[in-house]
Amino acid sequence: MTAVHEELLHEFHDFAKSALTATSLMERISQRLHEKFTRYNWVGFYLVDAADSNVLVVGPFVGSFTPNRRIPLSSGLCGAAASTGQVVVVDDVAKDPRYLPGSSLVHSEMVVPIFVKNQLAGELDVESYFPGTFTAIEQQFVQGCATVVAKYLAKG
Length: 156
Description:
The chain has helices at about 5-20, 20-35, 75-85, 135-155, and strands spanning about 40-50, 55-65, 70, 90, 110-115, 120-130.
């Protein structure tokens, strides 16, 4: 990871120590990632719906378009990450039939599932207007951000 990645992860770990709510932590992470990485055009969280564990609902996000508000676990890249428990990285969403368009400007996407006590709690979703944005280093970094949230949620 780069120095910027490491500084941000340190910042998020420190903020998590005093964050009053998981929402405030997710808001901070979304905002800072969007500010620091110009290719991260939409950054946000999807959370498992408390009323229906087969659906993800949009949580805190920062970006230039309104996301899909509800995503069934059986559809989209978010659903794929949730159902497999694996990070999903797509360099060109136009070539992936699972992609649920939130904006026609999006070209690449990465979705990192967040587990708490072996249960899916949500996902960190990053979308870019540029193809091939998410290198292995970017994936490692975003997974680190998701881990900060998972650890916070596990405390609750």
